[in-house]
Amino acid sequence: MDRMENGYVLRVSQLNEYVNGMLRRETLLQHIGVRGEISGMKRHSSGHLYFSLKDDTALIRCVMFRNQAAKLSCALQDGMQVVAYGSISLFVRDGQFQLYVEDVRQEGEGELYRRFLMLKTRLEAQGLFDAAHKRALPLLPRRIGVVTSRSGAVIHDIVNVAGRRFPNMPILLYPAQVQGSGAAEDIAAGIRYMNEKHLADVLIVGRGGGSMEDLWAFNEEAVARAIYESNIPVVSAVGHETDVSIADYVADQRAPTPSAAAELCVPVYDELYGWTEDARARMQNGVRRALQRERDRLKSLQTSAGMIAPAHRIAKLRENVRYQTDTLKRAAQAQMVGNYAALDALTGRLEALSPRRALASGYALVKGGDGYISAVRQLHKEQSVELIMADGTAQALIMETRKES
Predict the structure, then answer these.
(1) What does the alpha-carbon distance between residue 269 and residue 69 come to, in Å, rounded to a whole number?
(2) Are strands 96-106 and 59-64 parallel, antiparallel or unpaired?
(3) Closest CA relative to residue 102, chosen from 61, 63, 54, 155
(4) What is the pLDDT of residues 202-236, one digit of tens each?
(5) Would you say the pTM of this structure is higher than 0.85?
(6) Per-residue pLDDT reduced to its tens digit, 93-131
(7) Closest-CA residue to 231 (of 185, 183, 191)
(8) Could you give the 3-state DSSP secondary structure of residue 341?
(9) By three-state DSSP, how is residue 184 classified?
(10) 202-207 vs 253-254, strand pairing mode
(11) Alpha-carbon gap, residue 104 to 69, rounded angstroms
């Protein structure tokens, strides 16, 4: 039996996985629209939809998972002419080639949706949808900016919701054309104007519901670029909850309706006031608790061994100082008593040796010239001298000197 010597031999699962990988790597097949008639429509209990698309000569199996099916604007039925958008893949277990459907549009919307997917793919690749670029909305904006039609219900809904949540919240409208030729450029100009003049802390950009053609201005690149470049956080509120636009992907947040956008941007005054009061009370209680903890800590330190030991030592040192002081006082007093006694003794001795005591006994001092006379040889005849006695002085004249042998 002949066989292919140069061919690969694969298991069935390997072959199916390889083919599935080839399909997934084909970019065109991952964002494709397929036109055809719905046939064999079945809704599973899980919410998934299973059906086929067929034309005159061929048929393809289709699967639409519950999350995508829930967003459909109309119920799918056999016989409907539609364009189904999604990705081609292979169900490896059964080898079933099928279309995994993300959205279905009735015939007529197919071309717009193709343009939508192409722009979405390109802008996503350029990073315009990156979560890292999206900013949080301010907790308490000073002013809300709105870019929408002057005459539509959108601005009235926003004003009503904002007034109910936060009375007197300033709202500034940039009246823009939101449908038809030139609408995208007008919306983009409004976003840039709000940024250039720093007129708001958050922007709501949107319009009410309508067909895909009516909402198309919010699928234009000009609007997407203006939202991406905005320094002011942007909330997109385009159409109804089931409508999704390019603006929704680029905006910092998407709101399903304009009223919901107002609820996202405007806080409830009473709740905010209550929150601030709670925060103030929590801070006051926190300060009180912190002060009490510090008081308890100080008291604990004061009664701790580390604080008591120095206090006890200081007390002992003070007692020692008092003892030493008393000792010094006693020693000083004893020293003074001894000194007084010695002084008295010296005074007695001085008194005993004092010339005045000899004078009191009848002796006299003889003073002549500049000093006292202690010997006869210091005198001469007719010399005038002064006699100093116990009770006074007298003048005398030397009549004669006689020296004893």
Answers:
(1) 39
(2) parallel
(3) 63
(4) 999 999 887 777 889 999 999 999 999 999 999 99
(5) no
(6) 888 889 999 998 877 555 667 788 899 999 999 999 999
(7) 191
(8) helix
(9) helix
(10) unpaired
(11) 9
